[in-house]
Records
---
Amino acid sequence: MIFPALYNGPINYFARLVRQQEIILEQYDSYSKQTFRNRCIIMGPNGVVTLSIPVKRESGIKTHLRDIRIDYDTNWNKIHWQSLVASYASSPFFEYMVDEINPFYQKRFEFLIDLNLQLIEQTLGMMGLNIPVVCSEVFTPISSEHDPRHFIHPKKEQAVADPGFLPLEYHQVFSDRLGFRSNLSILDLIFNEGPDALSYLQRCLRT
């Protein structure tokens, strides 16, 4: 199975990654706007927050994901980190995980695919997993509605997009005021559940 290369991807994405013996990320797909390749969704003190990485690309020209460069004309990495701190500094496991994630917001990655791949490796490692992560060598077309490149998308309704996902509740910071929000970025699960994150991922798929 081929997976999209996502930035701090949602929980239903990682629920599938943790079941793999090897993870192959598609790098030859045509980059498109408003996907999880350059954005993630977290829960802030005032509600849902979308964090987007600005990228460099020529308008009207199809560009492979592997060739998409990150745009540092704005301090997006500082803004993202400040948002993560504001959202999760009071979560149970933030202080234990902070040193594992912070370096990704200090280093300047040239290509989006490199940032995403290394973040995925780090996130799996934080859950005690050592699953090899590699990039595809050729483009594999989407041939099934069960392909994660098809249904893991911020614009799709969860029930329609991924009926196999079980949005089991876990403790979230601010849930007492804002209620529970399912299928946020994997960081929300890790900062709130810590070592229990893997167990949650193993239980939140129907198949």
---
Amino acid sequence: MTQANQKYTILYGRLSQEDERDGESNSIQNQRLMLEKYAADNGFENILFPSDDGYSGTNFNRPSWKELMRLVESDQVATIIVKDMSRLGRDYLLVGQYTEMIFPSYGVRFIAVNNNVDSLYGDNDFTPFVNLFNDFYAKDTSRKIRAVVKSKAERGERVGTRAPYGYKKDEANPKSKILTNVDITRPYAWSSASIVDILENEVYLGHTINLQYTTLSYKNKKRIERPESEHLRFENTHEPLITKEIWDIVQDIREHKRRRTNMEEQDMFSGLVRCLDCGEKMTLHRAHTIAAVKNNFMCSTYRKRGKEKCSSHYLREVHLAAIVLDDLLRVTHFARQQEALFIQYINRKNNAETRREIERLQREQELMRRRDTELSKLFKRLYEDNVLGKVTNEQFRMLSEDYNTEQKSLKERIPKTEERIEELQASILNVTRFIDKARRYTEITELSAELLNVFIEKIEVGERAERYSRTAEQEIIIHYRDIGVVGAFAEEAEKVAEIRQRQTA
């Protein structure tokens, strides 16, 4: 048989990050030198040396190993030689499956040099124990690494292997062979999942969040998310790339996800317009068959469930844009021109509103806590009645499911309400931040999605005083970020400013 059609002798090498700690003897280069010498000394020819560098022995989903098995399955391999059994793998069940079933079925000779294993001379009774010890080693190593990672995480050190996009690793503490953040074959093809990960990652605020993920086991490396209660949060650990203001705006936009549109231009009001009566979103109706000036908002409850649940609250987009632009120009103008008066008015108004909101949330929270306690008692009583035969198993199942569903909902809502109360108690609405934005945006000529998201939290649209009347009044309430509802402040401030000017003239 010529070398052209002779089967391959595979010299296989593997090295994981854990193996590197054992010293240079396990390096891929040293494995290759040792295996090539063994092959030469024993007359093996037509040699290939595939290797997997940086892959755990408990994982057989390795690139070179998969290519090796492709050659085996296509009957192109005569012999596989490894330095020792641990280079093949550290999962004793899978290693045994390969050496005792798969390789023999394809007529492949297997040699582990340092363990004196050679399938040509029959089974080695000690081999299963070697595989088991290798498995124990992997488990023990995994446990030690987890302990080290947890210790670092608890100290607030970053434990990720790669720097987040936009950052680079400390040059004084580099790591070699860091994978790129993008697919080099498609460098500009950002996936939606990647964008979402960036938008929701608090690392860009300068914070470190550790222990967000773990793996199922030392064999199954599938990443799973830990409960939020197990996350470790450390603030201001490094330089932020964005401000808290931008972060809050982005999270608010993501909370009110934009409805996809088939039109070329995205609705700039998307997620901002609400029905004043039912609180649901106002949906924008537009089509290629109607003129842009006739694009209109309508209550989504009315569109879905009819006039028995709510009314249309019809409002044309161009009219809303004109109203919002006019109000935004007046409010930002007086925020710049009458700063002291603006701050005094907003703080006086919002302090009263904040107190009312806190009181409302505290009452709601107290009711939820009482109901949670009541449900626990009801469930206990229901269980006792079921044991005593007063309630059938079917009744117990149905009622307990209802109780559990309600209680689960309460346990999700209570901490969110508590968080909102703390936010309101801990902060007076930031008037100065609004004024800073007003100073940055001095040349406002038309509305844009950027302006709306920077300045406005939501817009509430009421129903017309007379249905189907184009001239009847329609209440529109604009909630500004940082300062809330301004109302008729602009007109009041203008009058006060005129009076002061006359007095000083």
---
Amino acid sequence: MKLLLKSLALLLAAVVFFVVAGVVATWAPDKPVDELKARWARAPSQFVPVQGLQVHLRDEGPRDDPEPIVLLHGTSASLHTWEGWARDLSRTRRVIRFDLPGFALTGPHPKDDYSIDAYVRFVAGVMDALGVQRFVLGGNSLGGQIAWATAHAHPQRVTRLVLVDAAGYPFEPSSVPIGFRLARIPALAPVLQRTLPRGVVEGSVRNVYGDPSKVTPELVDLYYDMTLREGNRRALGLRMAQRWAVQPERIAQLKLPTLVLWGGQDRLIPPDSAQRFAKDIAGARLVVWNELGHVPQEEDPARTVAEVRRFLGI
């Protein structure tokens, strides 16, 4: 009996040791936004006050554009996901992109409201702050859902719509990034808000690429730092806990020129949703790249932006 108790004590001590060692090895407290600005908010970044937030924003291209192109990123991403598109499109068009509440350098919503309606109000608020009345609106994943919901709520303001692997219909993912899966477990929140294995971030980014070899160390640095921004991990957990009403009937009510872009290797929001968007929005044009994943604008900006230029006639 004594030998058994001694063995159990040694086993428990070993478990405690490895748990503590794991926590120490992955310890990653929140980073203040000012600490992140030097690397990730270089010119032409600016911070604009909107609805109690300091919104990280980039506004590029000719100011006389009557209908600027506005781009919305997805969950746990940032305005940087549109870098390739912005570089190309801003040569002839005004391009506006910003970090959504709960993510990247903009950070948490002051009222912890991550509903789609709150995001729609936020997009309209940013446009009001910039004095932009009418605009082309594009979005990826969560940003795509916000984009079509904004077009539905403000049909007089949104003139064209670009949906990139957008959310909106019920779907069954074949694979979910590990970071999202962990964020959906409330019991892990106290630990996850203080630790962050770099491998979790890298694995999550690789999961949404059709070709994971395109994921560079610098790209992992970006996603890692944006996750560490003060308050973002807590915000992600809250957003994952909020249940959104799925209202696909609103999609069929949209009456504006729409381009639907999709990665055929998207395992998070399968291409079935692409077919539904193309069917339900009258006149929508659909383009699918069989080898790209959930963030085609980031994975292959040159090929994907070419379709946007064609759609906009530029």
---
Amino acid sequence: MMLWGREILTVIFIALQLVTALFGGYQIVFSFFGLVYRKRQVTASPEKRFAVLVAAHNEESVIAPLLDNLHQLDYPKELYDIYVIADNCNDHTAMIARQHDVRVAERFTLDERGKGYAIRWMLNQLQQVDEKYDAVVMFDADNLVSRNFLQVMNDRLMAGKKVIQGYLDSKNPFDSWVSVSMALSYWYTNRMWQLSRRNLGLSCALGGTGLCIDMQLLSELGWDATGLAEDTEFGAKCVSIGIYPEWAHEARVFDEKPVTIMASLRQRLRWMQGHFSCAETYAVPLIKKSIRERNLAKFDAAVYLFQPASFIVVFLTAVVYYLQLASANSTLLTGMLGLFPNWFWLTINILILLQIPLALFLERVNWRAYLAIPLFPVFLLTWFPVTLLAVFTRHNKNWVHTKHTRSISLEEMK
């Protein structure tokens, strides 16, 4: 029985090493293509007409600065309209929105709750208005937006892109160790994942806000992304039919990161539940298509679905490295973890960990962010209970609202 147990553990550890080595090596190789950033100049004149959608559920505390911000974008005012989706609100969100001279669509329903359903409902409403739009842009009520945002989106649409994702930044990175840890994750991902994919001509991952979609494409595909991770769902659907979302490093959207660990855990659990549910539907078909078509973009999109958060690899490599070191003094582990030498795991760990300060340097992030790096491994540890719970609750469709309170203007943030 002891022998069988050892053999089972050996198989598990070998599989862990192989998967971790593949994911770690894959990400390291691709990250090198994010080291170079060539700014894409806006060359197209304003032409596209936008419907700017702001999804809001009880956001009276934060929505006003965003609406002021949207009115001040560097884009002709006659070429965009702002719509606030007041989704099942029982506060003053709708009233504040009307005071800011935007169009308000109030939605009340006992079923089909959540952002994905609210967007689908709003898109149906747009079909009934007199105005005709070339594209839809989506924001959350807690966001702030760089003033060039629509300029960049117009330029990319004029170049033939159908789905464009803006740079995902933070408006409150230094409010707590949790918010700065979340911000570190995004700065790292923006540079080492998203930009590298743009440089390689691959699809970026959609982020749920700061998203621009061609209206004709929406008319053809419809909007059935109503899960807990509607961004991942829509992105996977696009890639599966050969539409590859474009990363716009030059257009920024700033969102509010959770300040407390419990708020962050709830938010990430919802993300991971939606992510795993989406992976069930799209991951295997994308791999099959990538092999059949010899298509790297579809394979890379499948890798993203298999790897819910890229920085989980950092912790996995650390675990494998520790187990391999421990095997020298453990009767149970002896001989079970020798698939790769110690220097291999040490190198993988160092290369991945060094990418975080390197990303901060390349992105010219405030020096205070470097002080948070020692706590980042602690934050990484919290991903594992979240991810494990999400695996077993991935069919849960209950939307859990993240409360936002950080009211700040774009000018104050600068």
